[in-house]
C-alpha cells in the first residue's frame, strides 16, 4: 500500500492548472469513441473490440431502456430480476456485473457499495449514442473496468435555432410514457434539458398469487457548456432519477417451508434515487489540451425484504486532471496524454442489525495514467496505456493495455488488443451488510485478469455490408465467490486458481436491397470458475437478428427483431437444501414494430413485444412479461 507522499503536490498542481484543460467538443465528430482514450478515437482506428448504438438505431427499434439495446450487442449478457424497475445486470464476456465500468457522459455511475450498475433506471431518453468497449480497460479507467466499459453519451446543446422534442406512449399493463426535451444556444452558451416519465402497473413476477409488480421512473437531465474565452470553456452536466417499484421477495423463513427459496407474492416495495453530476474546466490551444474535472455519483436505496427494512446510501467523488499533446508529420501523428485522479468512496447501511453494520465505510485511491496514440500512413493505428493505482485498503495495482488496428486493401480491417485489469472488492464484500445473512471479509484481494482478442472486419458483397469476427480469451485470478456455512450465512472468499473466459463474437450490418437492411450478432461463450463450474446467467450461445424494411416513399417502415438466449445455469436454494444449480431453458423473444411519418415533425409508431408470448426466466423463479402491445407519438420542432 502507498502512503501517497505526492498526493498534495499532485492535487495542488491540478488546482493550479484551472486555466488549462482538456477535451474538445465531441458531439459532432462522427463515430468518435470517447471512452477509448484521453482524446477519443475514430471507430475505424480502434484496435479494441467495440460496438456503437446510435440514437437513430434506438428510435428505429423503439427501444425505451438501455438494457434492451445492450441485448443486441455481441459479448453481452443481460438479466432482469423480474418486472420493470427491478435489478438489471449486464455482464461482458462472461464477467461479473461489477467488472463492467458504466459511464454516463464520462461520469462513473457504478454503485460504490455494490460495485455494479443497476440498469433498471436508465431510459434511452436524450441519448446520442452508446459505446461498448470489450476487454480489459483498467489501464485507462482503473478498477471495475476489468471486462469492459459501457459509456452512454447524451445529446449536447446546439448553436442556432432552439429545438424541442416530445414523445408519448401507451401500452399493455397500463404502461404510459412521456418525454420532453429542449436544446439550443449561441456561440457562447449551449444547453440541453430533458425529462422522462415512465409508469406501469406491471405483471406478476411470482408463480404464487396474483399481485402485479409495477414501477414508476422519473428522470431529469441537464447539460450546459459556457465559452469563457476562445480557448477556455466550462461545462456542467447532471442527471437525477427517482424510481419506485414493487417487487416479490424470496421466502427465507426458518425453519424451511414448502416455498423456501421460492419467489412469493409479498409487499416488498423498493425505491432508488440516483444523482450524478460533473463540472469540468477545459482548455485547448493548438495541439495542447487540458482538463480539470470534478464529479460525484450518489445512490440511495430503500427496500422492504422479508418484512424487514433495508437501505443504504453510497457516494463516489472524483477529482481528475488530464493533459494531452498532439504532434506529428505528414505520414505519422502521435498523441501523448497523462492524467492523475483522486477518488473517494463512501457507504452506509441505514438499517443495521448490529452497531458495526451501521458504521460509515470509506476508502480512497489515487490513479496515475500514461497513454500513447499513434497513426502511421493512415493504415496502422496503435494505442498503448499504463496505469498505477495506489489504494488505501488494498495492495497497489499496475495495469497495461495495447491495441492495434491495421487497414488492408478493399476496406478490410485487422484489429487486436492485449491488456490487464483489476477490480477491487466491493464495500459490501469487505464489510458485509447483514450479520445473519451476509458477512464481509476484510482480507479479500482484488480480482485481476489478463486478456487478449483478435478480430477481422471485412466487407461482403458491398462496402455497406460489414462482418466483424473476433476471438477473445481471458483468465481471472483471485475471483471472489460466495460460500455458505452450516448456519446459512454467506461470506465472500478469493478462489484458488484461474477462472476461464473465452469465445467468439460475430457482428453483421448488411444492406440487402435499397429498402431492406439486416443486422445480426452471435456470441459463443465459455465462462467457468477456477473449479470448472459454469458461471451462472451466462449462456453458451446467444444472438440477435433484426430486419428493417422501408415501404413506399420511405415514410412508412416495418421491422422485426429476434433475440436468442441459449440455455444457462442459475443458482437456487430451495426447501433448505444446500446451494444447487438449476437449468434455465433457452428462449426466443420476438418484437414486431412499425412507424409512419405523418409530416416532417410528427411520427406515429407501434410494436408488439414478446410476439410469440413465450414464458421463460432470465433469473430463476422470476417470470417475465407476456405478449404486450404499445402505440406512441413522437415529434421534433
Describe this structure in words.
This protein has 637 residues and is mostly beta strands. The chain has a single domain (7-636), classed as Maltoporin, Chain A (Beta Barrel), CATH 2.40.170.20. 5% of the residues lie in helices and 58% in strands. It is built from 5 helices and 37 strands. The strands form 7 sheets. The protein has a 22-stranded antiparallel barrel. Strands 3-8-9-6-7 form a 5-stranded mixed sheet. Strands 1-2 form a two-stranded antiparallel ribbon. Strand 13 and strand 14 form a beta hairpin. It is globular. It starts with 6 loop residues before the first helix and ends with a strand.
Give a quick account of the main beta sheet: strands, pairing sense, barrel closure.
Answer: 22 strands, antiparallel, barrel
Percent of residues in β-strands: over 45%
Q: How many strands in all? A: 37
CATH homolog superfamily: TonB-dependent receptor, beta-barrel domain
Any idea of the CATH topology?
Maltoporin, Chain A
What is the share of helical residues? Answer: under 10%
Radius of gyration: 24 Å
Instruction: Determine the mean pLDDT.
Output: 88
Bulk shape: globular
Would you summarize the structure shown here?
By secondary structure, the protein is mainly beta.
Secondary-structure blueprint:
Layout: H1 7-16, E1 32-33, E2 41-42, E3 50-54, H2 55-60, H3 66-70, E4 76-80, E5 88-92, E6 100-104, E7 107-108, E8 127-134, H4 138-141, E9 148-154, E10 160-171, E11 175-185, E12 189-203, E13 213-227, E14 232-250, E15 263-285, E16 288-305, E17 308-328, E18 332-349, E19 361-376, E20 380-391, E21 397-407, E22 413-423, H5 427-431, E23 432-434, E24 438-439, E25 447-459, E26 466-477, E27 480-484, E28 490-494, E29 498-511, E30 516-528, E31 541-551, E32 556-565, E33 568-572, E34 580-584, E35 587-597, E36 602-609, E37 628-636
Parallel strand pairs: 6-9
Antiparallel strand pairs: 1-2, 3-8, 4-5, 6-7, 8-9, 10-11, 10-37, 11-12, 12-13, 13-14, 14-15, 15-16, 16-17, 17-18, 18-19, 19-20, 20-21, 21-22, 22-25, 23-24, 25-26, 26-29, 27-28, 29-30, 30-31, 31-32, 32-35, 33-34, 35-36, 36-37
